[in-house]
Amino acid sequence: MLGDIYEEIVEYTKTHLKNEEVLLEKCGYSDTAIHKMVHSKLTKQVLDKQKEINDGKSLISMDVMNFLKSWLIDHIQNTDKKYSAFLISKGIK
Question: 37-70 burial string, b = 16+ CB within 10 Å, else e?
């Protein structure tokens, strides 16, 4: 069950981050490249952990799930807040 949830979180994360990057580029956000690097780092961490799990080198645990939850919450509340005013000024809510 946790494996399925982890898989869904991985897919959601990749889709969400890609859509966010497209929106930032479309609106001309000046720090898009930096934001993409942050996304790339997260994606690598998530995919590395997924590979460890799939290879039997790691187990899905609540620690792993809490890492994902914490990272996403921190990303949304801190990193994403940096561009929210910019997008609102472009008419995007």
Answer: eebeebeeebeebbeebeeeeeebeeebeeebee
**CA atoms within 13 A of residue 78's CA, in its CB half-sphere:** 7
CATH architecture of 2-89: Up-down Bundle (1.20)
DSSP 72: H
Write the pLDDT tens digit of every residue in 30-81: 999 999 998 898 889 888 888 888 887 777 777 777 777 787 788 888 888 8
Number of helices (H), then strands (E), in the chain:
4, 0
